[in-house]
Amino acid sequence: MQRAIVFGATGGIGRSICTDLAEAGWSLYIHCSSNWPAACEMSESFMKQYPSQEFLPLKFSFFAENNELEKMVQSLLPINAVIFAQGITDYHLLSDQNLDKVDEVMQVNLVTPIKLTSLLEPLLLKNDFSRIIFIGSVYGAQGSAMEAVYSATKAGLSRFSQAYAREVASANLTVNVIAPGAVDTAMNKMISVEEMAEVVGEIPAGRLASGADISFWVKALLDPNSTYLTGQTLYVSGGWLT
What we know:
By secondary structure, the chain is an alpha/beta fold. Helix content is 43%, strand content 16%. The protein is built from seven helices and seven strands, in the order E-H-E-H-E-H-E-H-E-H-E-H-H-E. Strands 3-2-1-4-5-6-7 form a seven-stranded parallel beta sheet, sandwiched between helices. This is 3-oxoacyl-[acyl-carrier-protein] reductase.
């Protein structure tokens, strides 16, 4: 049985990823940091649609201590794939940004994903092939004013994935980043209607991405025939900023 763990599964992109993977026959760990009712509802809905698969809600914080991360990983059933779809930002000039918020953005977007990757490696290497996918951002290539720390974390994911992929490529574990442009999710609701209209006007495709635009590429990277693609950042941006 193919099983993936989707971190940030209750977010806009995470939900689309889970929906596509469930339809494709994957069993899933459906992770949330706080929205436990949504994770349970998703699991129950998928179980009704796909009774031969397993859907397990999972709650833990990306601010967890190292020993808590270790316990969580030790509790998991065998997995073939890990998708990091969680993420937070803080829309401020750096000089106005609370230092604790800097720590939070770094922890959720970069530090804890790296730690979990290290802890999950033994589980993944037991398979004939396995996958790690990070949801990055176009801002990892061209940094965004007002989101300097967020941009730094997404750039860090790309360089980490490039380096780590070279360590595990011979074991058929691929590591890649899918970097969306502007996506129609709750994270972008902090931007005013006027500002968002300006952004859409800059996108050659003429629209924001949907969650399905991103989850399509997640599913493609999970295909067994994608083994030769590793250490890459795929920009799914409608031609914007790339």
